[in-house]
Design brief:
It contains six helices and nine strands, in the order H-E-E-E-E-H-E-E-H-E-H-E-H-E-H. With about 180 residues, it is α/β, with parallel strands linked by helices. It is globular and about 50 Å long. The N and C termini lie far apart (about 45 Å).
Length: about 180
């Protein structure tokens, strides 16, 4: 993964020099000095690091491009060498190992508990939820998008509930 990170970061920086990088591993968040986290940088697990220290998920962010343009650029750079998605309204690309998605994690946890997709209700609002929605939907479960969800997620949802401000998840669960 280190060689992939190096080639991806080099190519993204070549195409868009003002790209910032960070990484996630478990409950830890590491970022380059230039990367400005959008939350408390003094929180446990948040620290500056070099790209060589970042593992699990590489985050690339650009401050002046639109989200969809930047995520598309990251997808072009990465190709089939990794999985690219986004969970932000900002120009933030999340880059994971090939095939690693919320669906693979959800399927693994469900299997460990003897639960199939037909017995799962999943909620989401961003493109990083699409794979999980498809796994649940295609298996007969419920994939519930928030009313304010990204259009691509709304396209794969089985249901839509209210926004976060309207307590959409609570309203949906209460109706069950």
């Amino acid at each position: 993964m280190l060689e992939l990170r190096k080639s991806v970061t080099a190519e993204l920086r070549r195409r868009q020099p003002d790209t910032w990088f960070a990484g996630e591993y478990g409950l830890e968040f590491r970022h380059e000095p230039i990367y400005e986290p959008r939350w408390d940088i003094n929180a446990p697990g948040v620290a500056e690091a070099t790209l060589e220290e970042m593992v699990a998920k590489l985050l690339a962010r650009h401050e002046s491009m639109t989200r969809d343009t930047f995520v598309g650029l990251a997808g072009d750079v990465v190709g089939d060498r990794a999985t690219v998605t986004t969970s932000s309204t900002d120009a933030l690309a999340e880059i994971s190992a090939p095939g690693v998605t919320k669906a693979t994690g959800l399927a693994r946890v469900a299997a460990e508990h003897g639960v199939g997709p037909e017995d799962v209700v999943v909620f989401g609002d961003m493109p990083n939820d699409i794979a999980a929605f498809r796994w649940v939907r295609d298996g007969g479960g419920r994939a519930v998008a928030m009313a304010h969800a990204h259009p691509d997620l709304l396209d794969v949802a089985t249901n839509v509930t209210g926004t976060n401000e309207e307590d959409g998840v609570a309203a949906f669960l209460a109706a069950l």
